[in-house]
Amino acid sequence: MFKLLIGWVLNALALMGVTYIVPGIQVASFTTALIAAVIIGLVNMLIKPILVVLTLPVTILTLGLFIFVINGILFWAVGNFLDGFTVQSVMAGIIGAIVYSVISWILSAIVVDKD
Q1: Where is pLDDT greater, at 102 or 4?
Q2: Is 39 left (phi over 0), alpha (psi -120 to 50) or beta?
Q3: Where are the domains of the chain?
Q4: What is the CA radius of gyration of the chain?
Q5: How far out from the chain centre does Cα 46 lie?
Q6: Region class of 112: left (phi > 0), else alpha (psi between -120 and 50), else beta
Q7: Of 82, 110, 85, the residue nearest 6 (C-alpha)
Q8: Where are the alpha helices (DSSP H) in the chain?
Q9: Distance from C-alpha of 97 to C-alpha of 69, rounded to nearest angstrom
Q10: How many CB atoms are located within 10 Å of the residue 51 CB?
Q11: What letter would DSSP give residue 112?
Q12: Which pairing describes strands 85-87 and 25-27: parallel, antiparallel, or unpaired?
């Protein structure tokens, strides 16, 4: 349970970091980042697998690169859904999703122990 809460806070911090790196993405406050991190996690857990299966032929044709587009569209959709979290375009969503994943991975590698 403790690792889950740490991961949640780290993802919110990663989202705050994305706002400084990627133009076109804004987060109003840390509380909004916490809420956005939960929603992004739920969307990636519930909706992304369905989209991956539905777009499997395109994903195969692009050698897996279409997954970046799916991630960006979902990131952009959460930005349109949540007040205080803004993603101005799908391209900003694609870049933001990549940067968010990298920052989140680095923070998790540094902070979370490897039991």
Answers
A1: 102
A2: alpha
A3: 2-19+26-111
A4: 14
A5: 14
A6: beta
A7: 110
A8: 2-21, 30-46, 48-54, 56-61, 66-81, 90-111
A9: 9
A10: 18
A11: S
A12: antiparallel
Structure tokens at 75: 């990131």
- Write out the two tokens for 12: 């919110």
E strand or H helix at 26, and its extent? strand 25-27
Distance CA 65, CA 73 (A): 13
pTM value is: 0.90
Task: For 7-32, write each residue's pLDDT tens digit.
Answer: 899 999 999 999 999 999 999 999 99
3-class secondary-structure state, position 87: strand
Taking the C-alpha atoms of residue 41 and residue 71, their distance in angstroms, rounded to an integer, is 11
